Amino acid sequence: MTGRLPPLSALRAFEAAARHSSFKRAAAELGVTPTAISHHIRLLEADVGKQLFLRQARTVALTADGDNLFRPLTEAFRSMGEAVAAVRRRPARKIATLSATSAFTARLLLPYVSAFRDLNEGWDLRLLASDEPVNLEAREADAAIRYGAESSSELTSLPLLADQYAPVCSPKLDLRRPEDLARASLIHFDWRFASKKRTLPTWRLWVARAGVSSIDPESGIAFNDESAAIQAAVAGQGVGLLSLTLVEAELASGALVQPFGPSLDGRRYDLVFPTHAESTPAVVALHRWLVSSLALNASAALTR
């Protein structure tokens, strides 16, 4: 078990004085007075209960106990110095923090997280998956992906993806015409964090566009989580008016089908960050990655 150590300042003063065989030269190295060095040595000798130096007229010499302490102490300080130097030489990790909704993160970002470091050497990625917007002005994240971002003097928006919404369901429901919705449950997603909700794609807007008067657009199952609404549709629990961007993988695999139209234009997904931060390294790294990843995503959509 390691014993209690004397004060580091006293050990440092002792090591320098022993190495120089001089309190004066030790004081010059450490930027203190010879009196301070002498004081530290006396405290150290009192702490260990041994005389460490033989005081002579113009020099000092180590006693046998002093010599036993000096050698391992010199090696310890050398090792400490090398460790500190190594830490100083090591480049600091750079972290880019991006906020996005839980559904967008899981479905469009997670498949490409490894590509972030391939594109941005020396950078780490931190994803904040939440349907509640973060405060970008307070630097809770470097940037965010927002749906239908509104213009602001404090925030800048760069377009990423346009979106469309359409009825999608499990092929097991065997829906072929809009009128078939009468025998299925409608799946709703609650846009509780979106502003100007009247312009968002909802079943009420779709029913009016499709001209299907026999359907109650308010009936069915409602979710406050977009991913849960998608999973309910995959499980055959009903028909969701869902983002074609977010269900792209399920449409490609056949887990979901789009049995009929029309489609409704959604809003746009934008990369949003504080104004004047466009050229900061974190925002540049995030934008480079998103443009590359979403281009891959779009290419995959063209092949299905």
UniProtKB/TrEMBL annotation:
Question: By its UniProt entry, which InterPro entries does this protein fall under?
Answer: LysR-type_TF_proteobact-type (IPR058163), LysR_HTH_N (IPR000847), LysR_subst-bd (IPR005119), WH-like_DNA-bd_sf (IPR036388), WH_DNA-bd_sf (IPR036390)
The HTH lysR-type domain covers: 6-63
Q: Name one Pfam family in it.
A: HTH_1
GO terms of molecular function? DNA-binding transcription factor activity; sequence-specific DNA binding
Q: Which BP terms in the Gene Ontology apply to this protein?
A: DNA-templated transcription
The answer, when asked if DNA damage is one of the entry's keywords, is no
Asked whether the UniProt record includes Glycosyltransferase among its keywords, one would answer: no
Q: Which PROSITE patterns match?
A: HTH_LYSR
Q: Keywords assigned by UniProt?
A: DNA-binding, Transcription, Transcription regulation
Gene3D superfamilies linked: Periplasmic binding protein-like II (3.40.190.10), Winged helix-like DNA-binding domain superfamily/Winged helix DNA-binding domain (1.10.10.10)
Question: Which PANTHER family does this entry report, sorted A to Z?
Answer: HTH-TYPE TRANSCRIPTIONAL REGULATOR (PTHR30537), HTH-TYPE TRANSCRIPTIONAL REGULATOR TRPI (PTHR30537:SF74)
Query: What family does this chain come from, according to its entry?
Result: Belongs to the LysR transcriptional regulatory family.
Protein name, per record: LysR family transcriptional regulator, glycine cleavage system transcriptional activator
The root-end lineage is:
Bacteria, Pseudomonadati, Pseudomonadota, Alphaproteobacteria, Hyphomicrobiales
